[in-house]
């Protein structure tokens, strides 16, 4: 599986990563190698096999519906790059 | 008194008898860290309040009667830096989180804290636990205490190196594809990847949630069993933790192992494994036989597909889990950006290293429309086949014996330019994470360069007892001196 430069740029955008030109080339090479490497799985016929997404059988986990204490503001926001203590501040999203 | 060379169990008993004080061990460990860190770089941060905490514990100790003293009272432990310890930095060895302070304790930390442990510092790792050599850390590579030009393995390389070098009494690591077992093998210490669900993952920074497990890294098997009993169990904060009673693993160490059947999978003795590693494993198998274990050759036919399966599933889950690092909530944000999407893209481009970017992009690709069935769904189906291989094997045998790593510790830089070569370092450990099974990694000898070789004991789900009982006897029979000269 060989990826084109355009495909790498598209994957990078979906991944929310801005890449420099030389990085696009490096990842084009490496990602293509990895995708070629994993193609080995196509040797196996998996028709009719159920996928195993998790090892422990899925089970509903419910708790009693009792009020508890929320994570406090100061701890929620203590690591935020920009905050007023009650909100995370991000660049303006809505355009005029 | 050289307390740093004593086991966790011995120190716990000395404190219980009030023969030593918490501050004595803590001071020795801090001194050892100071002596060794320049060479090893096994720690990202050292807890500045450790000495103060230890002194407080000295005072408390005088007021406690022998049966009131918690089992880890005053024992300094180090923690892999992807596990939250409240008030301490938790960087995941990434620029993205270099200033992140943990706002809460992980469940495993809460449990150890209740037993009186002191958290001495946070160990180096591969960035976000992605790697097999601790070379992808933003804070620089950790060196192997047996040979400083070599890697300690990864991603729990800092934890394994610290325990081996005696700059921690014991440590906690995490294992997604071998990240506890492989560095333990390369550093000559004992580590377990418990059964998936045995230990709560709450407070561990998620990498690949269906594979990650926290486990102890220790000097010997008894300490390991001791710690696993303390950190295991159901947790309301982790819906995947198992609703099963937690055994005291130290109570079953002396279980009779005569007559147990061990499987030797032929697919694990492949080309590419170093002859000396193979030789040492086969010698150890002879030891097992002399302990009364019956050896039977078995087949795990889908073994050679495990690495490929892992390198679809783990990046897919990672691409989703690491989506939260976007410059909004967790410390790092790029300085110059034009709008929200640009802020995300630049923050992530600047904050993540190449291995993390590579895996996020692979995961994004294999989960994207049009490719999901061909890659992700296919891999989950192969995962079923790998799981079934083990199920079939365990109809015949009680546990399985394999090498941990195909090679002993390799040189720093040797594999960094070739991701696939690096990925193959975990060829013997990955299948267990896919199948959710427990694996114990312990030293079984040295190669001609004096580097440790590790053996892996694989068990049935939730049967850590058997692994510890076998490991305990084997450790006594081998009687290795696993103390590196530093």
Automatic annotation (TrEMBL), chain A:
Transmembrane parts of this sequence: none
Taxon lineage: Bacteria, Pseudomonadati, Aquificota, Aquificia, Desulfurobacteriales
Species this chain originates from: Desulfurobacterium indicum
An MF annotation (GO) of this entry: ATP binding
Coiled-coil stretches noted in the UniProt entry, renumbered to this chain: none
First-level EC class: ligase
Gene3D superfamilies hit by this protein: Glu-tRNAGln amidotransferase C subunit, N-terminal domain (1.10.20.60)
Self-association state and partner proteins as the record states: Heterotrimer of A, B and C subunits.
Cited PANTHER family: GLUTAMYL-TRNA(GLN) AMIDOTRANSFERASE SUBUNIT C, MITOCHONDRIAL
Pfam families named in the record: GatC
Keywords for this protein: ATP-binding, Ligase, Nucleotide-binding, Protein biosynthesis, Transferase
Gene transcribed to yield this protein: gatC
Domain of life, per lineage: Bacteria
Family as reported in the entry's similarity comment: Belongs to the GatC family.
Catalytic activity: L-aspartyl-tRNA(Asn) + L-glutamine + ATP + H2O = L-asparaginyl-tRNA(Asn) + L-glutamate + ADP + phosphate + 2 H(+); L-glutamyl-tRNA(Gln) + L-glutamine + ATP + H2O = L-glutaminyl-tRNA(Gln) + L-glutamate + ADP + phosphate + H(+)
Protein name (database record): Aspartyl/glutamyl-tRNA(Asn/Gln) amidotransferase subunit C
GO biological process: glutaminyl-tRNAGln biosynthesis via transamidation; regulation of translational fidelity; translation
EC number(s) reported in the record: 6.3.5.-
Protein function: Allows the formation of correctly charged Asn-tRNA(Asn) or Gln-tRNA(Gln) through the transamidation of misacylated Asp-tRNA(Asn) or Glu-tRNA(Gln) in organisms which lack either or both of asparaginyl-tRNA or glutaminyl-tRNA synthetases. The reaction takes place in the presence of glutamine and ATP through an activated phospho-Asp-tRNA(Asn) or phospho-Glu-tRNA(Gln).
UniProtKB/TrEMBL annotation, chain B:
Short name of any one Pfam family annotated for the protein: Amidase
Keywords: ATP-binding, Coiled coil, Ligase, Nucleotide-binding, Protein biosynthesis, Transferase
GO biological process: translation
PROSITE patterns noted in UniProt: AMIDASES (PS00571)
Catalytic activity, reaction form: L-glutamyl-tRNA(Gln) + L-glutamine + ATP + H2O = L-glutaminyl-tRNA(Gln) + L-glutamate + ADP + phosphate + H(+)
Coiled-coil boundaries: 1-67
First-tier enzyme category under EC: ligase
Active site: 80, 155, 179
GO annotations of cellular component type: glutamyl-tRNA(Gln) amidotransferase complex
Annotated Amidase domain residues: 24-467
Gene Ontology terms, MF aspect: ATP binding; glutaminyl-tRNA synthase (glutamine-hydrolyzing) activity; transferase activity
EC number per UniProt: 6.3.5.7
Leader sequence residues: none
Functional description taken from the UniProt entry: Allows the formation of correctly charged Gln-tRNA(Gln) through the transamidation of misacylated Glu-tRNA(Gln) in organisms which lack glutaminyl-tRNA synthetase. The reaction takes place in the presence of glutamine and ATP through an activated gamma-phospho-Glu-tRNA(Gln).
Annotated family: Belongs to the amidase family. GatA subfamily.
Assembly description: Heterotrimer of A, B and C subunits.
Protein name: Glutamyl-tRNA(Gln) amidotransferase subunit A
